[in-house]
Amino acid sequence: MVLEEAWTLKELFVYPNEYIYWSIQIVMYPFMTGLVAGAFVLSSLYHLFGIKPLKEMAQFSLVFSFALLIVAPLPLLFHLLRPERNFYVFMTPHFTSAIAAFGIVIFVYGSIVASELWFLHRKHFVEVSLKLRNQMNKSLAEKIKYLLFTTFTLGAYDAGESALKKDHQAVKILAGVGVPIACFLHGYAGFIFGSVKANALWMTPLMPVIFIMSAVVSGVALCMLTYIITMEIRKLMASRKRSLSHHPTMEDIRGVEFYEMQITSKYLIFFMIFSLSLELLDLVFRGYTAVKSWDILRNVIYGKDFTNIFVLQYTLGNLLPFILLLIPGLTIRRAVLSLILVLFGVFMMRWNVVIGGQSFSLTFAGYMHYQLPIIPHDIETFKEGIGGALLIGGMPFFLFWVLSKIFPVFELKGSH
Amino acid sequence: MNRRDFLKFALRGSAALALAKGLDEIFRPSAGHASLKTSRWVFLVDTHKCIGCGFCVKACKIENEIPFEANVSRTWVERYVVTKDREVFADTPKEARDGFTTGRVDLGLGKYQDIKKENIDKAFFVPKLCNQCEKPPCVQVCPVGATYQTADGLTLVDRQWCIGCGYCIMACPYGMRFFHPIYRVADKCNFCYHRINKGMKPACVLACPVGARRIGNIKDPGDPVTQVIQTQRVEIHKGEYGTKPQVYYLGLSEEVR
Amino acid sequence: MYVLRPLYVVLALVGVILIARAFIVPKDFGIHEKGYMYGWYRKTNEEEWKALKVKYQGKEYCKDCHAEQDQQVRSSRHNLIECENCHGAALEHPIDPQKLTLDRSRELCLRCHTYLPYPTSKRSEIKGIEPDQHNPGGECVGCHNSHQASKPH
Fold first, then answer.
1. Does residue A73 sit within a domain?
2. For a pLDDT cut of 70, what percent of chain C falls above it?
3. Radius of gyration of chain C (CA)
4. Chain C contacts in chain A segment 76-115 (CB below 8 A)
């Protein structure tokens, strides 16, 4: 049996070789890179433009962006039929293909984020390394920690005033340079789809822009959400350690978080409006010009995929959170609900583009139905099923926890 | 400008020019190869002749080692039935591997359409295969250079290099490509490259009892296929995509998808 | 100036990739006749494809040893059909395989001889049957002579 037959059902006239080749992992990939880009843009809003209330969020979202970046290539590895050859894209890149840009972009962007993190936290690495160096009789864990942190310093031990100022300057430059690169990291994914002339749904010059805008939406929403969750956890821990004076009190924490919520939700709304307008523009244009593919696309958009597009993505994922965020007197609970809905909406947008684009045949006279594998009966249906998707979805959180042990993400004082 | 500045300028200028020329040579090498000029494979499909026996599909699968039971094929035959009330029914049961042995049209999802003989205005068969485009979009989008165009115009896939991303499959407007179930790399019709280079005909051309499939060299004016293309009204499929396909059809009716 | 240290790390990584490339990428991988867009590949692959084994040999291959059958078929309406369409691919017969299988199944004949009433197709000009009504389930060659279509078996 053909692999893709496990999750594709054909209806009416479909070419024999047509299946849903790009399934859940190809939905996950732009979703993850979108979160990467959005988280980075959020962090840059503070580092580059100095928007003070976003300071806490900025520390946090940069590390999160890095954690997401490490996970981002995983959906691709799960998708490739020959994952052991994945590095060929670095060896013989064919730059006429948008996918070949992946190698360059991930490398450049990864370098920028890693460098920015390095400049931000170099002082911390130096402090930990020096402290451990002076400590006799290190335990095994401490020996490893010392080795790690000494390596992280890259031999730059100068923690004086002028050195830190240089660090600060470098962070600003990297935050600035990184914004267009982050946009490119996700924009190229939009270009991958938008440039496929064979696919009537994907082919539009608006695709890269739509992708970038909704990427920023998702990144901001994710950072806000995770920030709220971690603050709630810290509040819980603070309430237990009330006796220790140097820990911030619950009131301190609550105050900071509320103000940040309000500022960031304004940015979220702005990008949501932009993103939605582009999508609606695309839809209106298609209906108006009604080219050859319009008949089948109309059947897919307004018929087959109506629930996915108008109910799940536009209403639940856009309109509802929009209203919830605009109603005066925003509470944390309401914010959390809207953010979850926003993330869901962005995920559905990726789903509707990737799966939607394969829901109709190249004949324009047939349909394909996607059945996401829920219960895997082999490694393939796990990798390209809900199991694989959830594994990848959860991994950034785990990685973030690991990274938070290296980078001090939760200090109210911060490095600068 | 003094002498030193002039020399600096001249040196930098010539270095830049040399770099530009070098890059130009790399990215646009001059076409100085013999085979480019003397041969370019083209195919001719005569839908008036096709009887839908499906021997071509069977022969292709066996000749090119595509798993017989798998629902993928390098070539197939489509059936179109147009009724008096201008409804078009089309199918390609098992890629026409077993021919068309029933008048019921396969609608998928277990449904079939019975069509009464009196109701049929026209019905015909259309063999399809890779167009070996002059500007193949599948080659353009391969991220690693695993698929390519030979000097004589054929698009081939390097099984040792394909990473299985599927971009080429999405990029083909004709739906010609698929993943080989065993090798797990992209695959597609290559005009039986191993046969035509020995002076033999592709398996499908050989198997066809009625001569609906023919292969030729467009650069050879004496080639009978070239003469048909030059002198008769021929069509290409989905020309609007700009791929410049090199499979020419006789009798490609407007219902054909 | 330690500020450039991250850059050095990045450049070192690039260096590693370029060195690895020199070992991993085959020497004949490059831009060939059709330029970078269409001709970026490993040249040896062309020869690999040319070396694929030929399975179908064609009628001319059969007729020297099987002259009698060849004559029979040539004088019948089935002369259009390749021997191998029914007898299977010759490969290197008679060395390997020694004997070719013969497809006696009903389905083989039905490919052309299921009557389909298609006015604009040559298919409707082939004498055909309604599979459900004419000897359903039985082998056609039980009564019909496939080498000499108009004669009885």
1. yes
2. 98
3. 29
4. 87, 90-92, 94, 96, 107, 111, 114-115
- Looking at residue A412, its pLDDT comes to 45
Cβ-based neighbour number of residue C4 at 10 Å: 10
CATH number for B182:
3.30.70.20
Is there a single domain that holds both residue C12 and residue C65? no
Best CA proximity match to A154, nearest among C7, C151, B106: C7
Domain shared by C73 and C40, yes or no: no
Chain A CB within 8 Å of residue C3 CB = yes
Where does residue A334 rank: exposed (0-12), middle (13-18), buried (19+ CB within 10 A)? middle
Tens digits of residue pLDDT in C48-90: 999 999 999 999 999 989 999 999 999 898 999 999 999 999 9
Say how many domains are in chain B: 2
Tell me how far apart the alpha carbons of residues A57 and A52 are, in angstroms, rounded to a whole number. 10
ipTM above 0.95, yes or no: no
Q: Indicate the SS3 state at residue B80.
A: strand
**Residue C121 included in any domain:** yes
Split at pLDDT 50, 70, 90, the class of B68 is very high
**Chain centroid to CA A20: how far?**
24
- A267 touches A221 (CB < 8 A): no
B100 CB within 8 Å of a chain C CB: yes
Query: At B166, is the pLDDT very low, low, confident or very high (cuts 50, 70, 90)?
Result: very high
User: What is the average per-residue pLDDT within B166-170?
Assistant: 97
Task: Give the span between the Cα atoms of A215 and A37, in whole angstroms.
Answer: 6
Tokens coding C101: 């299988």
**By C-alpha distance, which of A181, A209, A196, A23 is closest to A98?**
A196
Is-cis flag, bond preceding C97, omega within 30?
Answer: yes
Arithmetic mean of pLDDT over chain A: 88
For B200, which of C54, C81, C110 is closest by C-beta distance? C54
pLDDT tier, B18 (very low <50, low <70, confident <90, very high otherwise): low
Q: Do A89 and B179 touch (CB under 8 A)?
A: no
The sheet with strand A8-12 has its strands ordered as A366-370, A8-12, B105-108, B111-113
Q: Are residues C26 and C99 in the same domain?
A: no
- Could you read off the pLDDT of A151-185 as tens digits, one per residue? 888 888 888 888 889 989 999 999 999 999 988 88
Consecutive H or E run containing C28: none
Same domain, yes or no, for C89 and C130?
yes
Check whether the bond before C94 is cis (ω within 30° of 0).
Answer: yes
- Cα angle A159, A163, A164 (rounded to 5 degrees) comes to 75
pLDDT grade for B252, boundaries at 50, 70 and 90: very high
How far is Cα A14 from Cα B107, in angstroms, rounded to an integer?
9
Could you list the residue range(s) of the whole structural domain that residue C31 is in? 2-50
Q: Are C33 and C9 part of one and the same domain?
A: yes
Q: Do B207 and C82 touch (CB under 8 A)?
A: yes
Phi-psi region of A329 (alpha: psi -120 to 50; beta: other; left: phi over 0): left
Radius of gyration of chain B (CA): 23
Residue C44 falls inside a structural domain:
yes
Q: What is the domain extent for residue B20?
A: 1-30
How many domains, in total, are found in chain A?
1
The DSSP line for C43-100 is THHHHHHHTSPP----HHHHHTT-HHHHHHHHTSGGGGS-HHHHH---TBTTTBSSS-
Tokens of B42: 């083209």
pLDDT below 50 — which residues of chain A? 412-416
Q: Domain check: are C115 and C88 in the same one?
A: yes
CA separation, residue A158 to residues A100, A163, A255 (Å) = 40, 6, 35
Would you call A148 an interface residue with chain C, using a CB distance cutoff of 8 Å? no
Q: Are residues C65 and C19 part of one domain?
A: no
Summarised one tens digit per residue, pLDDT across range C109-140 is 999 999 999 989 999 999 999 999 999 989 99
Residue of B nearest to A93 (CA): B144
